[in-house]
């Protein structure tokens, strides 16, 4: 059996010689997930409480599909930018206030279920702006984080996504329940505006070299031509992400079958279990720096298998509250560790000149895998039951972990 081909990794010094801008990156990563958390968790609960049908709620859920579309225009953010204002900072100076305006455009929808079509259109615009902001933020992360800081940086990124979900999908829903729609929307806009203040104070190091126009879109394919990248990005990552997403697609449906309300499901799955996952992100990032990428990937796989076993009572119809929360929380903690490693290695494989495009391309692959296998897992469950389906997709994830550990052991990333 031949050893995996080691990737060509750029481990040179980052653009910035000083300490990484943790405050900037943290608030930007939280900011982009505030509205997403509100739309995918909070808005679903609000609409359901107002009498929206499941078919209408599925329309809202489709908003998530807009996130991978950023791949189409990510090269623009690498190609164009202001030298005076900072290449990627100049994009953030436009995108961050645009996200605030898009949120404020939700104010007229005091009765969300009464004008669902226009509401979804405004939400779709916000998702596209947020996704584009993510490209600019991740490009800064690739350029400004030193190789030894990338694990912690991506741990912060994953943790920030859960913080955004807790604030947007939890806190804002509580504000809505107590003070109404306008108060919840204004809170979202105000929290998003905080990140703009941080961007205004940030001074981005000059970016050099610039990406030639002919090379901008070529980077979408060019990153896969680097030695070792296809094995990781098209082999390991889809198995890890797809398997984990397949397992996690099952508990929500099982909870509905067990008689839980959608509001209770949303609070538990979107808020309560997000807290330990948010804490696990930075911890996993610190462990990546201390133990290495391969060890944390292996530990995440073991944790995922244990948590999947813990979900068996739920999947068989028994839903003890404490056990269910513990199993779901444990699963998200393990998934977070896997996510941190995937994002860290993706950042390792990026080229500084096309950082936004490369990172977006490499992280879109797992998103697509997650969407596809989540649907496939539910179809599998219809044929063989929840438990057998969960076992199958857990094995898929573990196969990816085993392949990934072998790949990392042969790569200069430890």
Automatic annotation (TrEMBL):
Keyword Signal: no
GO MF entries: transmembrane transporter activity
PANTHER family: MAJOR FACILITATOR SUPERFAMILY DOMAIN-CONTAINING PROTEIN 3, SOLUTE CARRIER FAMILY 33 ACETYL-COA TRANSPORTER -RELATED
Any single Pfam family the record assigns to this protein: MFS_1
Keyword field contains Acetylation: no
Source organism of this protein record: Modestobacter roseus
UniProt cross-references to SUPFAM superfamilies, sorted A to Z: MFS general substrate transporter
Transmembrane segments: 22-47, 89-107, 113-131, 152-176, 182-200, 232-250, 262-288, 295-315, 321-345, 365-384, 390-408
Keywords for the protein's UniProt record, in alphabetical order: Membrane, Transmembrane, Transmembrane helix, Transport
Lipid bilayer topology: Multi-pass membrane protein
Name the record gives this protein: Putative MFS family arabinose efflux permease
Compartments where located: Membrane
Domain of life, per lineage: Bacteria
One GO term describing the cellular component: membrane
